Amino acid sequence: MQRFFDLLISVLGTVVAVALSWPYWRDYEYWASSHTAWQVYFAAGFVLSVYVFYVFIGSTRILFSHAADEARAARAVVEKKCCDHEGGKAQ
């Protein structure tokens, strides 16, 4: 289910990026003489952009997962030292 939402976010982000880069917003100043070339350009760009967004989201999730694991491990070490220290005083 998480992959589906990652893909959905990637597609939505790409749609926004394509909408922002559409030549209509610039009065077709950059519109090529071949509309087929623009269609191929936007289709290939769309697919590449979805892939890049998807990989970025996955990489970010992995990065935050590793950071959370390190924080848990550091907390466990501190708690263990604290409990060992308190246990030593009680004996």
Task: Explain what this protein looks like in three dimensions.
This protein has helices at residues 2-21, 35-90. With 91 residues, it is mainly α. Helix 1 (2-21) packs across helix 2 (35-90). The longest helix has 56 residues, at 35-90. It is rod-shaped, with a radius of gyration of 25 Å. The mean pLDDT is 81.
List keywords for this structure.
single chain; mainly alpha
Break the fold down into its secondary structure elements and pairings.
Elements: H1 2-21, H2 35-90
Helix pairs in contact: 1-2
State which percent range the strand residues make up: under 5%
- Coarse morphology: rod-shaped
Number of separate structural domains: 1
- By DSSP (H or I, 4+ residues per run), the number of helices equals 2
* Pattern of helices and strands: HH
Class of secondary structure makeup? mainly alpha
Largest β-sheet summary: none
The low-pLDDT segments are: none
How many angstroms separate the termini?
Answer: 52 Å
Mean pLDDT over all positions: 81
Radius of gyration: 25 Å
- Share of helical residues: over 70%
Number of strands: 0
In short:
84% of the residues lie in helices and 0% in strands. It has 2 helices and no strands.
